Amino acid sequence: VRALTKRHGLGGTSAGTRAAPDAADAPSADASLGGGGASTGPALLGLVADRLTVREAHIAALAGALGDALQAVVVEGLPDAVAALAFLREDAKGRATLVPQRPRRIVGARSPLPAAWREDPGFVGALDALVQAAPEDADLVRHLLGEFVVVTDLDAALRLHGKASLDVTLVTLTGERLAPDGTLTGGAGDDGAAHMLELKREMRELASMTEALGARLTLAQHQHGELRSGIAKRQAALDAVQSEAHDAELAIVEVSQEQRRLSDEERRIGERLEALEDETERLTATMAAATDEEGQTRALIEDVQASREVTRVELGSAEAVDGERRHAVEEQAARVWLARVRAALAG
Question: Which end of the chain has fewer surrounding CB within 10 Å, N or C?
Answer without folding.
Answer: C
